[in-house]
Specification:
Distance between the termini: 62 Å
Radius of gyration: 27 Å
Shape: elongated
Strand content: 15-25%
Strand order of the largest sheet: 2-1-3
Order of helices and strands: EEHEHEEHEEHEEHEE
Helix content: 25-40%
């Protein structure tokens, strides 16, 4: 339970769930009390939840610790699948695979070696052939030589 909160009726839950429940029905999800919601942090419950023993949710991960440290573990755990940070990329994998993948991700940002404009890796060839003012052109006679523009 993250950020325990208590409603005016006395019922408690995590603030995200309580707010979501109150937005669907304008009442407490437990007793249906309709008093205007005021969400107050439940300090006692927060302290109790923080020291509850937790384990990693990833299959096969040996990590065990306190609930208050579980979120940090999820970000760093080598057993958890993590998503590629590049826009539009759908790759997801364990940290070790992700580190290797990031170097070759087709959606990574590159700086053109000729005009120094930032481009997406998968668009580099098109950029060099059509857009880049500084990139050499391949000879149109078919000899294969690269000629300056």
């Amino acid at each position: 339970m993250k950020q325990p909160t208590t409603l005016p009726c006395g019922h408690s839950g995590c603030i995200k769930c309580m707010k979501e429940a109150r937005s669907i029905r304008q009442c407490c999800p437990k007793c249906r009390d309709t008093e205007v919601p005021t969400f107050s942090k439940n300090i006692s419950m927060d302290a109790m939840v923080a020291v509850v023993e937790a384990k990693c949710l990833a299959v096969g991960c040996p990590w065990k610790g306190l609930f208050k440290d579980a979120e940090d573990n999820q970000r760093k755990c080598s057993c958890v699948d993590h998503s590629c940070r590049n826009s539009d990329c759908l790759f997801s994998g364990q940290i070790s695979a992700l580190r290797h993948y990031l170097a070759t991700c087709p959606y990574r940002t590159l700086t053109c070696r000729y005009c120094h404009v930032e481009i997406i890796a998968k668009e580099e060839e098109e950029h060099l052939q059509l857009c880049c003012a500084g990139a050499p052109k391949v000879c149109f006679l078919g000899c294969g030589k690269r000629l300056p523009r």
